[in-house]
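Renewal narrative, Specific Aim 1. Our central claim is that a sequence can be written position by position from structural information alone. The example that follows is taken directly from our test logs and has not been curated for this report. It begins with the structure tokens describing the chain, in the order in which they were read.
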């Protein structure tokens, strides 16, 4: 991954923050997750927090998706090719289980899809990423109120840049983005 792609990945993943989330451990775990993309020393503390968070049923699948990505990041930071492969495969297994447990969790889908889209071609995970992105687009109209407007716009921008969109999906995203920007403008007029 080049630095720009890493930056976009960090910004995009970092932007997924539910408005209603008040769980300080979840915020801290997310912050450690973002930092672990460049700092290997943050991986284990992030994993530990996500394991703790995953004890709550509603966060179990999401936590597994994050933990899987953290394992994949261990692979990124590993020096030896066989260690890289070992960690990425373990991470993919965890991410798959996370999505299986929480197939309608927008954040888990996003972590999963964004990770899969950035993997080298030989992992053959582009189709998995596209399925996750398709589901995000399908769910997004019902989930808009759960997230900050600027963050949803960023998600839309990411999908418009990275996903293989059909014209109907492009229209859905464009309409949501226009509506959100219109609402944002009206709010700022007060």
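The sequence written for that structure reads:
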């Amino acid at each position: 991954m080049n630095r720009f792609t890493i930056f976009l990945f960090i910004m995009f993943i970092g932007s997924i923050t539910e408005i209603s989330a008040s769980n300080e451990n979840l915020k801290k775990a997310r912050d450690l997750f973002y930092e672990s993309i460049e700092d290997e020393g943050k991986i284990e503390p992030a994993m530990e927090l996500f394991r703790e968070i995953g004890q709550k049923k509603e966060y179990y699948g999401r936590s597994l998706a994050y933990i899987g990505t953290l394992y994949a990041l261990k692979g990124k930071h590993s020096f030896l090719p066989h260690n890289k492969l070992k960690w990425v495969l373990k991470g993919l297994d965890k991410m798959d289980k996370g999505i299986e447990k929480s197939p309608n969790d927008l954040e888990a889908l996003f972590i999963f899809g964004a990770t899969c889209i950035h993997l080298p071609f030989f992992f053959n995970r582009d189709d998995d990423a596209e399925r996750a992105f398709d589901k995000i687009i399908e769910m997004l109209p019902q989930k808009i109120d759960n997230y900050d407007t600027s963050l949803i716009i960023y998600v839309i921008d990411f999908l418009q840049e990275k996903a293989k969109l059909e014209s109907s999906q492009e229209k859905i995203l464009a309409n949501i983005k226009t509506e959100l920007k219109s609402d944002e403008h009206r709010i700022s007029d007060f």
